[in-house]
Design brief:
Layout (H helix, E strand, L loop, with lengths): L9 E4 L3 H4 L8 E6 L18 E6 L8 E5 L1 H6 L2 H4 L8 H28 L7 H31 L5 E8 L7 E5 L10 H8 L8 E8 L3 E9 L8
Antiparallel strand pairs: 1-4, 2-3, 5-8, 6-7, 7-8
Length: 237
């Protein structure tokens, strides 16, 4: 997902090992929620497969912790070195941008998988309307996120991060909970309206998507960063 990169993507972390090391136990393990992806969109109300289970994993178990096939091995290191290396990390527009870009890339991977899973599910007749709505929701979210990602890729190529906004809250200690997530606000009432979806994607008033990062900061502190990128008129209000 790095612009102009044609190398094969590898499993990359949205929450880096350097961060996880700050909260791991003596055996380099952390607690993380897990759910069964293949049944995540189950329509069985009695199913417990969608309830996350909190399990301990070693931070060096690559396949288990916050990974997606987003970037090649080279860009995973070089592009995000300044936010993964806590000694070099500084709060500025570029670091806020990189945190948001990595979050949005993972969100695209997750939603693509969700859409694919929905397409494979065998749905009872009475659940088809909800199934169709969920598919449209995932598709519309991918379109909205894709629009932002394209603009962010242009920013990387031009090395200009002036359209990045962020809000940072410094914590007195390293938080027990670390995360890297992304929120894509959309108008759910118009998800199935193709005319609305098309006009919204090209509107200067479209909502910018928001990334949330909770990570260690400096030697013994933590930081919460809300970051977003876009040229929406709402940014100027």
């Amino acid at each position: 997902m790095y612009p102009r990169c044609e190398n094969k993507p590898v499993r990359t972390h949205s929450v880096s090992r350097a961060w996880l090391k700050q909260i791991s136990d003596e055996n380099n393990r952390v607690v993380t929620p897990r759910t069964k992806h293949e049944t995540f969109f189950s329509y069985d109300p009695s199913s417990t497969d969608t309830i996350p289970e909190f399990t301990k994993f070693g931070i060096y178990v690559t396949k288990k912790l916050s990974t997606c096939y987003c970037f090649c091995s080279s860009h995973d290191v070089s592009a995000f070195r300044t936010i993964d290396n806590l000694q070099d990390f500084d709060i500025n527009r570029k670091s806020a941008f990189l945190l948001a870009y990595r979050s949005i890339s993972q969100e695209i991977c997750v939603k693509r998988r969700a859409y694919s899973n929905l397409s494979k599910i065998s749905v009872p007749a009475h659940d088809i309307p909800q199934w169709e709505w969920n598919k449209n929701q995932q598709a519309f979210a991918l379109e909205c996120i894709g629009r932002i990602r394209k603009n962010m890729q242009n920013a990387i190529l031009s090395d200009s991060y002036r359209d990045t906004r962020y809000y940072a809250i410094i914590l007195e200690s390293v938080p027990d909970l670390l995360c890297s997530g992304f929120f894509a606000p959309i108008d759910e009432e118009n998800i199935t309206n193709q005319v609305y979806r098309s006009s919204y994607l090209h509107s200067p008033n479209a909502n910018d998507q928001l990334a949330l990062t909770i990570m260690p900061y400096q030697n013994d502190k933590g930081i919460i960063i809300l970051s977003w990128y876009g040229k929406s008129r709402k940014n100027k209000e």
